[in-house]
Amino acid sequence: MNFRRRSGPPFRWSTVLWALVAPRRRQRTAPTLAGALLIALALGLGTAAYNAGSNILFITLSLLLACLILSGVLAWLNLRGVTWRLRMPPPFRVGQDAVVGITVTNAKRILPAHALWFDLAVRCVEEVGPARAETTLTGRGIDVKAALARADAAEARTRLFLDSRLAAAGERALEWTFRPGRRGRMRIELERVGSLYPFGFLQKDIATGVAAEIVVWPAVIDYQRRPAGVSPRSAGLRRTTRTGGGTDLLALRRYAPGDSHRLIHWKASARAGRLLVRQFAAEAGERHVLWLRTDAAGWPRAEQFERAVSLAATLAEDLFRADRLAGVALDAGPLVTVRRGRDLEAWLDRLAAIAPRPAAAGEPAWARGGAGVVTFAPDGRHAVSALLHGEPFATA
Fold first, then answer.
1. CA 56 to chain centroid
2. Fewest Cβ atoms closer than 10 Å to its Cβ: which of 133, 195, 255, 278?
3. By CB neighbour count within 10 A (0-12 exposed, 13-18 middle, 19+ buried), where does 359 fall?
């Protein structure tokens, strides 16, 4: 990979010295335990050297101070010219492993980078309305400790290490695998990048400010299909022009590696002089509309509501793969037709962010017919049923 040198002011040693004395914002250099002991030892040696007037003690003091200064300079050079970016390939689902990647690039021409570490955190993004500013004296019912704990809470946190040197003009990829615990919008933050290089006396770290938001889809849930939920109108199959495993012959096509030998049409192949296989029309049942209502009165138990959301997401994916999903709807909103994978993903994004809320007045016009509409309702204290024409269609 080719790197272009950025145009900027000419190199000056005064700029380097000022950067060491007064670093930029979000950069921090702090002594470690070994560094604190070294500083204490230097103070003791300095006091003894001035009292005793011993040249040996002065030489030892100068070596200790030079070691500290050299450690700071090398730590600054180690992080200079190093860039990083987050990689988050979707999708993200509750209960499934998700991978977050960091691409580290060393833009320096000569010096490598050593012993870097990266702090990553995943936090839930809570969508709350604007609140009036209040102090701890005038505010009522404000739990300051709880608010600070929520602000500092993280769904998951880790530290990734660059276990080997990163050569000049080199690039390295690091990965972190975590498992989201709940649906919704989450914020992945690369909090700090730091290093103990070279001697471990000083810890140099930088607050990056790099973050990105992701949408975590509901979990895939196991459910049981109920044959009783199939209405007489949907009991019969209808023929479509899509190729599949039905019984009606749709067309003949040339044989391709991997086709079953049972599909070869031997008579047509003999006439054409090449192998031809049969294609059958697919058979599909009635197409359904998934309608999820988030009425808080209808979902008194939070765990049942979460199960209903997961069932709505899983059913939508399964019906879409079977070409039996006509559309989706939420509360009194419009009916959204699902034709492509992007439409299904948009539905999963909406399910990731919903919460129980007061029921909307009225019923949408599209739901008055009720043909093929699947609704969701609690079933007992823990289970959830998907109802078609008032009968169980699936239970989870």
1. 59
2. 133
3. middle
List, for residues 2-13, the tens digit of each pLDDT value: 333 343 455 565
Structure token digits, residue 395: 């239970």
Q: Which of 129-133, 155-159, 195-199, 391-395 has the highest mean pLDDT?
A: 195-199
What type of residue sits at position 394? A
**Burial classification of residue 212, based on how many CB atoms lie within 10 Å of its CB (0-12 exposed, 13-18 middle, 19 or more buried):** middle
- Of 366, 288, 374, 282, the C-alpha closest to 325 is 288
Domains and CATH numbers, the chain: 21-127+147-217 (2.60.40.10), 240-284 (no CATH), 286-395 (no CATH)
Residues shown for the chain:
396
pLDDT (tens digit, 9 = 90+) per residue, 79-111? 988 999 999 888 899 999 999 999 999 999 899
Give the C-alpha separation, 5 to 178, whole Å: 37
Given a contact cutoff of 8 angstroms between Cβ atoms, the answer to whether 197 and 366 are in contact is: no
Asked whether the predicted pLDDT for residue 307 surpasses 90, the reply is yes
Residues 396, 385: Cα–Cα separation, whole Å: 6
